[in-house]
Amino acid sequence: MGSVTRRSTTAKGAHRGGLSAADLGGVRGLAVAAHRFDACRHIEEVVEAAAQTAVDVLGADACAVARITQETCRVVHLEPPSNDPRWHQFLSTTYRADERPALRALLRNRESWVAHAFDAQGRSVRPGDTSAGDRVEVELLREVGAASALTSPVVVNDAVWGQVTVVRDYDSPLFHVDDVATAEVLAALAAGAIARVDLEQQMRHMIADDPLTGLANRRTADQAAEAALGSGRETCVVMCDVDGLKRVNDELGHDAGDDLLRAVADVLRRAADAIPGATAARIGGDEFCLVTVDQPREVVATTMSTTVAKFPLPHGAAISYGIASTAVMGSVEARHLFRRADQAQYQAKRRRARARARTTPPIADPVQAVERLTSSGAVAIGAAAPAVVPRLCAFAAAATETLGGDSWAVRERMPGSQTFTTVARGGSPADSSETRVLTVERDEWVVEIAVAAAASTGRQVQTALRALVAIAILDVGAT
Protein backbone atom coordinates (compact mmCIF):
# COMPACT_ATOMS: atom_id res chain seq x y z
CA MET A 1 0.00 0.00 0.00
CA GLY A 2 3.09 2.19 -0.11
CA SER A 3 4.24 5.30 1.68
CA VAL A 4 1.85 8.12 2.45
CA THR A 5 2.34 11.53 0.86
CA ARG A 6 -1.16 12.98 0.95
CA ARG A 7 -4.47 12.15 2.58
CA SER A 8 -7.85 12.94 1.08
CA THR A 9 -10.27 14.89 3.19
CA THR A 10 -13.41 12.95 2.33
CA ALA A 11 -14.37 9.32 2.70
CA LYS A 12 -14.57 7.24 -0.42
CA GLY A 13 -17.98 5.66 -0.03
CA ALA A 14 -19.66 3.47 -2.63
CA HIS A 15 -22.16 4.10 -5.37
CA ARG A 16 -24.82 1.43 -4.97
CA GLY A 17 -27.95 1.85 -7.00
CA GLY A 18 -26.79 5.15 -8.43
CA LEU A 19 -26.44 6.79 -5.01
CA SER A 20 -23.35 8.84 -4.33
CA ALA A 21 -21.31 8.85 -1.14
CA ALA A 22 -23.11 12.02 -0.09
CA ASP A 23 -26.48 10.37 -0.68
CA LEU A 24 -25.49 7.44 1.53
CA GLY A 25 -24.01 9.48 4.36
CA GLY A 26 -25.56 10.64 7.61
CA VAL A 27 -29.26 10.23 8.37
CA ARG A 28 -30.12 9.49 4.74
CA GLY A 29 -27.70 6.58 4.67
CA LEU A 30 -29.11 5.16 7.91
CA ALA A 31 -32.63 5.46 6.49
CA VAL A 32 -31.51 3.44 3.46
CA ALA A 33 -29.98 0.90 5.86
CA ALA A 34 -33.25 0.62 7.79
CA HIS A 35 -35.13 -0.18 4.57
CA ARG A 36 -32.55 -2.78 3.63
CA PHE A 37 -32.87 -4.50 6.99
CA ASP A 38 -36.66 -4.41 6.83
CA ALA A 39 -36.55 -6.47 3.65
CA CYS A 40 -34.39 -9.21 5.22
CA ARG A 41 -36.01 -12.54 6.09
CA HIS A 42 -32.94 -14.56 7.06
CA ILE A 43 -29.97 -13.93 9.35
CA GLU A 44 -27.58 -14.29 6.41
CA GLU A 45 -29.42 -11.51 4.58
CA VAL A 46 -29.15 -9.22 7.61
CA VAL A 47 -25.41 -9.88 7.91
CA GLU A 48 -24.82 -9.17 4.22
CA ALA A 49 -26.90 -5.99 4.36
CA ALA A 50 -25.02 -4.81 7.46
CA ALA A 51 -21.64 -5.26 5.76
CA GLN A 52 -22.67 -3.58 2.54
CA THR A 53 -24.35 -0.69 4.32
CA ALA A 54 -21.38 -0.14 6.63
CA VAL A 55 -19.09 0.23 3.61
CA ASP A 56 -21.55 2.68 2.04
CA VAL A 57 -22.50 4.79 5.04
CA LEU A 58 -19.06 4.92 6.67
CA GLY A 59 -17.07 5.30 3.46
CA ALA A 60 -14.99 2.28 4.37
CA ASP A 61 -12.72 0.21 2.16
CA ALA A 62 -13.85 -3.03 3.80
CA CYS A 63 -16.23 -4.37 6.42
CA ALA A 64 -16.32 -7.64 8.33
CA VAL A 65 -19.39 -8.79 10.27
CA ALA A 66 -18.46 -11.35 12.92
CA ARG A 67 -20.40 -13.71 15.16
CA ILE A 68 -19.19 -13.96 18.76
CA THR A 69 -19.89 -17.11 20.77
CA GLN A 70 -18.11 -18.37 23.88
CA GLU A 71 -15.72 -15.38 23.64
CA THR A 72 -14.68 -16.53 20.17
CA CYS A 73 -15.00 -14.15 17.22
CA ARG A 74 -15.61 -15.63 13.76
CA VAL A 75 -16.16 -13.55 10.62
CA VAL A 76 -19.34 -14.60 8.79
CA HIS A 77 -19.29 -12.04 5.99
CA LEU A 78 -16.62 -9.86 4.39
CA GLU A 79 -17.47 -6.94 2.11
CA PRO A 80 -16.07 -6.66 -0.46
CA PRO A 81 -14.44 -10.10 -0.78
CA SER A 82 -10.67 -9.72 -0.70
CA ASN A 83 -7.93 -11.93 -2.07
CA ASP A 84 -5.21 -9.96 -0.30
CA PRO A 85 -3.84 -12.35 2.39
CA ARG A 86 -2.91 -9.40 4.63
CA TRP A 87 -6.48 -8.07 4.72
CA HIS A 88 -7.72 -11.60 5.21
CA GLN A 89 -5.48 -11.95 8.25
CA PHE A 90 -6.88 -8.79 9.82
CA LEU A 91 -10.57 -9.25 8.99
CA SER A 92 -11.24 -12.97 8.58
CA THR A 93 -9.17 -14.77 11.19
CA THR A 94 -11.10 -16.51 13.97
CA TYR A 95 -9.74 -15.49 17.35
CA ARG A 96 -10.56 -15.52 21.05
CA ALA A 97 -10.89 -12.70 23.56
CA ASP A 98 -7.71 -13.73 25.36
CA GLU A 99 -5.81 -13.07 22.11
CA ARG A 100 -7.31 -9.65 21.36
CA PRO A 101 -7.77 -7.26 24.32
CA ALA A 102 -10.07 -5.07 22.22
CA LEU A 103 -12.52 -7.97 21.90
CA ARG A 104 -12.45 -8.63 25.63
CA ALA A 105 -13.13 -4.95 26.33
CA LEU A 106 -15.98 -4.93 23.80
CA LEU A 107 -17.61 -7.95 25.47
CA ARG A 108 -17.18 -6.44 28.92
CA ASN A 109 -18.15 -2.82 28.22
CA ARG A 110 -20.22 -3.22 25.04
CA GLU A 111 -18.52 -0.13 23.64
CA SER A 112 -17.05 0.64 20.23
CA TRP A 113 -13.32 1.01 19.71
CA VAL A 114 -11.15 2.81 17.15
CA ALA A 115 -7.53 2.13 16.22
CA HIS A 116 -5.16 4.09 13.93
CA ALA A 117 -1.87 3.01 12.39
CA PHE A 118 -1.30 6.47 10.92
CA ASP A 119 -2.00 9.96 12.19
CA ALA A 120 -3.94 12.72 10.42
CA GLN A 121 -0.85 13.74 8.47
CA GLY A 122 -0.24 10.22 7.25
CA ARG A 123 2.67 9.48 9.56
CA SER A 124 2.98 6.15 11.35
CA VAL A 125 1.99 6.36 14.99
CA ARG A 126 4.74 5.80 17.49
CA PRO A 127 4.88 2.58 19.48
CA GLY A 128 3.13 2.97 22.82
CA ASP A 129 0.95 5.88 21.64
CA THR A 130 -2.24 5.14 23.61
CA SER A 131 -4.22 7.68 21.62
CA ALA A 132 -3.90 5.38 18.60
CA GLY A 133 -5.98 2.66 20.27
CA ASP A 134 -5.32 -0.90 21.35
CA ARG A 135 -1.70 -1.89 20.67
CA VAL A 136 -2.61 -5.28 19.13
CA GLU A 137 -5.10 -3.74 16.74
CA VAL A 138 -2.65 -0.98 15.78
CA GLU A 139 0.03 -3.54 14.95
CA LEU A 140 -2.39 -5.57 12.86
CA LEU A 141 -3.37 -2.45 10.93
CA ARG A 142 0.26 -1.64 10.37
CA GLU A 143 0.89 -5.15 9.00
CA VAL A 144 -1.79 -4.77 6.32
CA GLY A 145 -0.93 -1.16 5.55
CA ALA A 146 -4.38 0.11 6.56
CA ALA A 147 -4.85 3.41 8.33
CA SER A 148 -7.88 3.11 10.60
CA ALA A 149 -10.32 0.57 11.99
CA LEU A 150 -13.63 0.95 13.85
CA THR A 151 -15.56 -1.84 15.58
CA SER A 152 -19.04 -1.63 17.14
CA PRO A 153 -20.83 -4.39 19.06
CA VAL A 154 -24.09 -5.90 17.84
CA VAL A 155 -26.19 -6.42 20.97
CA VAL A 156 -29.23 -8.69 20.56
CA ASN A 157 -31.59 -9.38 23.46
CA ASP A 158 -29.13 -7.86 25.94
CA ALA A 159 -26.24 -10.08 24.82
CA VAL A 160 -23.34 -9.39 22.47
CA TRP A 161 -24.31 -11.30 19.32
CA GLY A 162 -21.35 -10.13 17.26
CA GLN A 163 -19.51 -7.10 15.94
CA VAL A 164 -19.18 -4.93 12.84
CA THR A 165 -15.63 -3.89 11.90
CA VAL A 166 -14.87 -1.32 9.17
CA VAL A 167 -11.44 -0.42 7.83
CA ARG A 168 -10.16 2.54 5.82
CA ASP A 169 -7.05 2.55 3.67
CA TYR A 170 -4.23 5.09 4.03
CA ASP A 171 -5.73 7.47 1.43
CA SER A 172 -8.99 7.95 3.39
CA PRO A 173 -9.56 10.05 6.53
CA LEU A 174 -9.29 8.41 9.94
CA PHE A 175 -12.46 7.36 11.73
CA HIS A 176 -13.65 10.00 14.17
CA VAL A 177 -16.33 10.42 16.82
CA ASP A 178 -19.15 11.02 14.32
CA ASP A 179 -18.23 7.78 12.54
CA VAL A 180 -18.41 5.93 15.86
CA ALA A 181 -21.93 7.28 16.46
CA THR A 182 -22.99 6.27 12.96
CA ALA A 183 -21.50 2.79 13.35
CA GLU A 184 -23.31 2.26 16.65
CA VAL A 185 -26.66 3.28 15.14
CA LEU A 186 -26.01 0.94 12.23
CA ALA A 187 -25.11 -1.90 14.61
CA ALA A 188 -28.31 -1.23 16.58
CA LEU A 189 -30.38 -1.41 13.37
CA ALA A 190 -28.70 -4.70 12.49
CA ALA A 191 -29.35 -6.03 16.01
CA GLY A 192 -33.04 -5.17 15.72
CA ALA A 193 -33.26 -6.93 12.36
CA ILE A 194 -31.50 -10.03 13.73
CA ALA A 195 -33.88 -10.18 16.72
CA ARG A 196 -36.91 -9.81 14.43
CA VAL A 197 -35.74 -12.44 11.94
CA ASP A 198 -34.83 -14.86 14.73
CA LEU A 199 -38.28 -14.47 16.30
CA GLU A 200 -39.96 -14.96 12.91
CA GLN A 201 -37.95 -18.12 12.33
CA GLN A 202 -38.91 -19.45 15.76
CA MET A 203 -42.58 -18.74 15.07
CA ARG A 204 -42.38 -20.44 11.67
CA HIS A 205 -40.72 -23.42 13.34
CA MET A 206 -43.47 -23.64 15.96
CA ILE A 207 -46.23 -23.36 13.35
CA ALA A 208 -44.77 -25.47 10.55
CA ASP A 209 -42.63 -28.13 12.26
CA ASP A 210 -43.41 -31.29 14.19
CA PRO A 211 -41.89 -30.81 17.68
CA LEU A 212 -40.86 -34.45 18.15
CA THR A 213 -39.10 -35.11 14.84
CA GLY A 214 -38.31 -31.64 13.49
CA LEU A 215 -39.96 -32.50 10.16
CA ALA A 216 -42.66 -30.35 8.63
CA ASN A 217 -46.20 -30.95 9.88
CA ARG A 218 -49.42 -31.88 8.06
CA ARG A 219 -50.26 -28.25 7.29
CA THR A 220 -46.92 -27.71 5.58
CA ALA A 221 -47.26 -30.98 3.66
CA ASP A 222 -50.70 -29.92 2.39
CA GLN A 223 -49.32 -26.54 1.31
CA ALA A 224 -46.39 -28.20 -0.45
CA ALA A 225 -48.74 -30.53 -2.32
CA GLU A 226 -51.05 -27.67 -3.34
CA ALA A 227 -48.09 -25.63 -4.59
CA ALA A 228 -46.69 -28.60 -6.50
CA LEU A 229 -50.03 -29.34 -8.14
CA GLY A 230 -50.47 -25.66 -8.96
CA SER A 231 -47.17 -25.68 -10.85
CA GLY A 232 -48.57 -28.14 -13.37
CA ARG A 233 -45.50 -30.37 -13.04
CA GLU A 234 -45.50 -34.02 -12.01
CA THR A 235 -46.30 -34.29 -8.32
CA CYS A 236 -45.70 -37.36 -6.15
CA VAL A 237 -46.91 -38.10 -2.64
CA VAL A 238 -45.28 -40.88 -0.62
CA MET A 239 -47.28 -42.03 2.41
CA CYS A 240 -45.33 -43.94 5.05
CA ASP A 241 -46.37 -46.00 8.06
CA VAL A 242 -44.20 -47.50 10.81
CA ASP A 243 -44.50 -51.25 11.25
CA GLY A 244 -43.76 -52.18 14.85
CA LEU A 245 -44.30 -48.90 16.70
CA LYS A 246 -47.07 -50.34 18.87
CA ARG A 247 -44.89 -53.29 19.84
CA VAL A 248 -41.96 -51.03 20.71
CA ASN A 249 -44.17 -48.78 22.83
CA ASP A 250 -45.69 -51.75 24.66
CA GLU A 251 -42.48 -53.69 25.20
CA LEU A 252 -39.87 -50.95 25.60
CA GLY A 253 -41.85 -47.89 26.60
CA HIS A 254 -42.83 -44.65 24.90
CA ASP A 255 -39.36 -43.15 25.12
CA ALA A 256 -38.14 -45.94 22.85
CA GLY A 257 -41.17 -45.32 20.65
CA ASP A 258 -40.26 -41.64 20.35
CA ASP A 259 -36.70 -42.62 19.43
CA LEU A 260 -38.12 -44.88 16.74
CA LEU A 261 -40.21 -42.04 15.32
CA ARG A 262 -37.14 -39.82 15.22
CA ALA A 263 -35.29 -42.59 13.37
CA VAL A 264 -38.11 -42.74 10.81
CA ALA A 265 -37.90 -38.96 10.44
CA ASP A 266 -34.17 -39.27 9.76
CA VAL A 267 -34.85 -41.74 6.95
CA LEU A 268 -37.46 -39.43 5.40
CA ARG A 269 -35.15 -36.44 5.79
CA ARG A 270 -32.37 -38.28 3.95
CA ALA A 271 -34.76 -39.22 1.16
CA ALA A 272 -35.92 -35.60 0.88
CA ASP A 273 -32.31 -34.39 0.75
CA ALA A 274 -31.70 -36.69 -2.21
CA ILE A 275 -34.69 -35.31 -4.16
CA PRO A 276 -34.53 -31.61 -5.10
CA GLY A 277 -37.57 -29.67 -3.91
CA ALA A 278 -38.95 -32.50 -1.75
CA THR A 279 -40.81 -31.88 1.53
CA ALA A 280 -40.71 -34.48 4.31
CA ALA A 281 -43.45 -34.28 6.95
CA ARG A 282 -44.95 -36.13 9.87
CA ILE A 283 -48.70 -36.34 9.38
CA GLY A 284 -49.39 -37.58 12.90
CA GLY A 285 -48.81 -40.66 15.05
CA ASP A 286 -46.77 -43.11 12.99
CA GLU A 287 -47.76 -41.61 9.62
CA PHE A 288 -45.20 -39.72 7.54
CA CYS A 289 -45.17 -38.40 4.01
CA LEU A 290 -42.91 -37.06 1.29
CA VAL A 291 -44.12 -34.54 -1.31
CA THR A 292 -42.10 -34.07 -4.49
CA VAL A 293 -42.48 -31.81 -7.53
CA ASP A 294 -41.06 -32.11 -11.05
CA GLN A 295 -39.54 -35.51 -10.25
CA PRO A 296 -40.51 -38.72 -12.14
CA ARG A 297 -42.23 -41.37 -10.07
CA GLU A 298 -39.44 -43.81 -10.91
CA VAL A 299 -36.85 -41.48 -9.35
CA VAL A 300 -38.92 -41.07 -6.20
CA ALA A 301 -39.52 -44.82 -5.93
CA THR A 302 -35.82 -45.62 -6.41
CA THR A 303 -34.74 -43.03 -3.86
CA MET A 304 -37.21 -44.32 -1.27
CA SER A 305 -36.23 -47.94 -1.84
CA THR A 306 -32.51 -47.17 -1.62
CA THR A 307 -32.81 -44.95 1.46
CA VAL A 308 -35.10 -47.30 3.40
CA ALA A 309 -32.78 -50.23 2.69
CA LYS A 310 -29.64 -48.28 3.60
CA PHE A 311 -30.93 -46.99 6.94
CA PRO A 312 -32.85 -49.78 8.77
CA LEU A 313 -34.90 -48.88 11.81
CA PRO A 314 -34.07 -50.04 15.36
CA HIS A 315 -35.96 -52.70 17.35
CA GLY A 316 -36.89 -54.66 14.22
CA ALA A 317 -39.35 -51.98 13.07
CA ALA A 318 -39.79 -51.16 9.39
CA ILE A 319 -41.32 -48.59 7.05
CA SER A 320 -44.17 -49.45 4.70
CA TYR A 321 -44.83 -46.84 2.03
CA GLY A 322 -46.93 -46.21 -1.04
CA ILE A 323 -46.52 -43.70 -3.88
CA ALA A 324 -49.12 -41.80 -5.86
CA SER A 325 -48.22 -39.62 -8.85
CA THR A 326 -50.09 -37.23 -11.10
CA ALA A 327 -48.30 -38.92 -14.00
CA VAL A 328 -50.56 -41.91 -13.28
CA MET A 329 -53.65 -40.26 -11.78
CA GLY A 330 -53.74 -37.14 -13.94
CA SER A 331 -54.96 -33.79 -12.63
CA VAL A 332 -56.38 -34.38 -9.16
CA GLU A 333 -56.83 -32.54 -5.88
CA ALA A 334 -54.22 -32.91 -3.17
CA ARG A 335 -56.50 -34.91 -0.89
CA HIS A 336 -57.06 -37.50 -3.62
CA LEU A 337 -53.33 -37.83 -4.14
CA PHE A 338 -52.77 -38.35 -0.41
CA ARG A 339 -55.61 -40.89 -0.28
CA ARG A 340 -54.25 -42.89 -3.21
CA ALA A 341 -50.77 -42.93 -1.68
CA ASP A 342 -52.26 -44.10 1.61
CA GLN A 343 -54.05 -46.95 -0.16
CA ALA A 344 -50.80 -47.93 -1.86
CA GLN A 345 -49.05 -47.84 1.52
CA TYR A 346 -51.68 -50.16 3.02
CA GLN A 347 -51.23 -52.59 0.14
CA ALA A 348 -47.47 -52.53 0.70
CA LYS A 349 -48.03 -53.28 4.39
CA ARG A 350 -50.16 -56.30 3.48
CA ARG A 351 -47.50 -57.55 1.07
CA ARG A 352 -44.87 -57.17 3.78
CA ALA A 353 -47.00 -59.14 6.24
CA ARG A 354 -47.58 -61.92 3.72
CA ALA A 355 -43.87 -62.07 2.89
CA ARG A 356 -42.99 -62.21 6.58
CA ALA A 357 -45.48 -65.02 7.14
CA ARG A 358 -43.90 -66.98 4.27
CA THR A 359 -40.29 -66.44 5.29
CA THR A 360 -40.59 -66.72 9.10
CA PRO A 361 -39.75 -70.27 10.13
CA PRO A 362 -42.95 -71.70 11.65
CA ILE A 363 -42.73 -72.91 15.21
CA ALA A 364 -43.96 -76.39 14.43
CA ASP A 365 -42.43 -78.17 17.42
CA PRO A 366 -44.78 -77.67 20.42
CA VAL A 367 -41.98 -77.77 23.03
CA GLN A 368 -39.94 -75.17 21.15
CA ALA A 369 -43.05 -73.05 20.57
CA VAL A 370 -43.94 -73.07 24.28
CA GLU A 371 -40.39 -72.16 25.32
CA ARG A 372 -40.18 -69.20 22.95
CA LEU A 373 -43.74 -68.11 23.66
CA THR A 374 -43.22 -68.16 27.43
CA SER A 375 -39.97 -66.21 27.17
CA SER A 376 -41.15 -63.49 24.79
CA GLY A 377 -44.57 -63.15 26.43
CA ALA A 378 -43.20 -62.78 29.96
CA VAL A 379 -40.68 -60.14 28.87
CA ALA A 380 -43.33 -58.17 27.01
CA ILE A 381 -45.78 -58.23 29.93
CA GLY A 382 -43.11 -57.22 32.41
CA ALA A 383 -42.00 -54.25 30.27
CA ALA A 384 -45.53 -52.95 29.63
CA ALA A 385 -47.31 -50.30 31.67
CA PRO A 386 -49.02 -51.73 34.80
CA ALA A 387 -52.55 -51.86 33.40
CA VAL A 388 -54.63 -54.59 31.77
CA VAL A 389 -54.83 -53.18 28.23
CA PRO A 390 -51.11 -52.35 27.83
CA ARG A 391 -50.13 -55.76 29.22
CA LEU A 392 -52.54 -57.67 26.99
CA CYS A 393 -51.44 -55.67 23.95
CA ALA A 394 -47.77 -56.29 24.69
CA PHE A 395 -48.44 -60.00 25.15
CA ALA A 396 -50.54 -60.24 21.97
CA ALA A 397 -47.86 -58.49 19.88
CA ALA A 398 -45.11 -60.72 21.26
CA ALA A 399 -47.12 -63.92 20.82
CA THR A 400 -48.05 -62.97 17.25
CA GLU A 401 -44.45 -62.36 16.30
CA THR A 402 -43.23 -65.54 18.04
CA LEU A 403 -45.79 -67.72 16.26
CA GLY A 404 -45.12 -66.15 12.83
CA GLY A 405 -48.40 -64.25 12.70
CA ASP A 406 -49.35 -60.91 11.22
CA SER A 407 -52.10 -59.32 13.35
CA TRP A 408 -53.75 -59.37 16.75
CA ALA A 409 -56.65 -57.81 18.66
CA VAL A 410 -57.70 -57.28 22.27
CA ARG A 411 -61.46 -57.20 22.99
CA GLU A 412 -63.50 -56.51 26.13
CA ARG A 413 -66.99 -57.78 27.02
CA MET A 414 -69.43 -54.96 27.66
CA PRO A 415 -70.93 -55.02 31.21
CA GLY A 416 -74.16 -57.06 31.37
CA SER A 417 -73.83 -58.12 27.74
CA GLN A 418 -72.32 -60.85 25.60
CA THR A 419 -71.12 -58.24 23.12
CA PHE A 420 -67.40 -57.57 22.80
CA THR A 421 -65.79 -54.30 21.75
CA THR A 422 -62.31 -54.04 20.27
CA VAL A 423 -60.07 -51.92 22.49
CA ALA A 424 -56.81 -52.37 20.54
CA ARG A 425 -55.44 -54.08 17.47
CA GLY A 426 -52.08 -54.30 15.75
CA GLY A 427 -50.28 -55.66 12.74
CA SER A 428 -51.67 -55.98 9.23
CA PRO A 429 -53.95 -58.91 8.36
CA ALA A 430 -52.64 -61.15 5.58
CA ASP A 431 -54.62 -63.58 3.44
CA SER A 432 -56.65 -66.04 5.53
CA SER A 433 -55.01 -69.00 3.78
CA GLU A 434 -51.64 -68.04 5.29
CA THR A 435 -52.75 -67.64 8.90
CA ARG A 436 -55.21 -68.92 11.44
CA VAL A 437 -56.66 -67.22 14.49
CA LEU A 438 -56.15 -68.36 18.10
CA THR A 439 -58.58 -67.03 20.68
CA VAL A 440 -57.85 -66.86 24.41
CA GLU A 441 -60.56 -65.78 26.88
CA ARG A 442 -60.14 -64.74 30.50
CA ASP A 443 -62.88 -63.05 32.52
CA GLU A 444 -64.21 -60.17 30.37
CA TRP A 445 -61.16 -60.14 28.10
CA VAL A 446 -60.53 -61.86 24.76
CA VAL A 447 -57.19 -61.91 22.94
CA GLU A 448 -57.15 -62.92 19.26
CA ILE A 449 -53.87 -63.83 17.58
CA ALA A 450 -53.44 -64.56 13.85
CA VAL A 451 -50.52 -67.02 13.67
CA ALA A 452 -48.72 -68.78 10.83
CA ALA A 453 -50.71 -71.69 9.42
CA ALA A 454 -47.82 -74.10 10.08
CA ALA A 455 -47.22 -72.99 13.69
CA SER A 456 -47.91 -75.44 16.52
CA THR A 457 -51.23 -74.57 18.19
CA GLY A 458 -51.89 -77.74 20.17
CA ARG A 459 -52.81 -78.23 23.82
CA GLN A 460 -49.39 -77.23 25.18
CA VAL A 461 -49.35 -73.95 23.24
CA GLN A 462 -52.96 -73.20 24.21
CA THR A 463 -52.11 -73.81 27.88
CA ALA A 464 -49.13 -71.44 27.67
CA LEU A 465 -51.27 -68.76 26.04
CA ARG A 466 -53.95 -69.00 28.75
CA ALA A 467 -51.32 -68.83 31.49
CA LEU A 468 -49.72 -65.71 30.00
CA VAL A 469 -53.08 -63.97 29.62
CA ALA A 470 -53.84 -64.76 33.26
CA ILE A 471 -50.48 -63.28 34.31
CA ALA A 472 -51.22 -60.12 32.31
CA ILE A 473 -54.58 -59.65 34.05
CA LEU A 474 -53.88 -60.76 37.63
CA ASP A 475 -53.41 -58.08 40.32
CA VAL A 476 -54.10 -55.25 37.87
CA GLY A 477 -57.12 -52.99 38.29
CA ALA A 478 -59.36 -52.13 35.39
CA THR A 479 -58.03 -49.44 33.06
Task: Describe the overall structure.
This protein is of the alpha+beta class. The chain has 16 helices and 14 strands. The strands form three sheets. The chain has a six-stranded antiparallel β-sheet, sandwiched between helices. Strands 8-9-7-10 form a four-stranded antiparallel β-sheet. A four-stranded antiparallel β-sheet has the order 12-11-14-13. The termini are far apart. This is GGDEF domain-containing protein. It comes from Cellulomonas phragmiteti.
Biggest sheet strand order reads 3-2-1-6-5-4
How widely separated are the two ends? 83 Å
Determine the CATH superfamily of the largest domain.
GAF domain
State the helicity in percent bands: 40-55%
Poorly predicted segments: 1-11, 13-23
Q: How many beta strands in the DSSP annotation?
A: 14
**What is the domain tally?**
3
Order of helices and strands: HHHEEHEHEHEEHHEHHEEHEHHHHEEEEH
Report the mean per-residue pLDDT as an integer. Answer: 83
CATH architecture of the largest domain: 2-Layer Sandwich
CATH fold node name of the largest domain: Beta-Lactamase
Which CATH class of the largest domain?
Alpha Beta
Largest sheet: 6 strands, antiparallel
Number of helices: 16
Which structural class best describes the helix and strand composition? Answer: alpha+beta
> What is the CA-atom radius of gyration, in angstroms?
34 Å
Protein name: GGDEF domain-containing protein
Pfam family, one: GGDEF
Domain GGDEF: 233-362
InterPro entries: Diguanylate_Cyclase (IPR050469), GAF (IPR003018), GAF-like_dom_sf (IPR029016), GGDEF_dom (IPR000160), Nucleotide_cyclase (IPR029787), Rev_trsase/Diguanyl_cyclase (IPR043128)
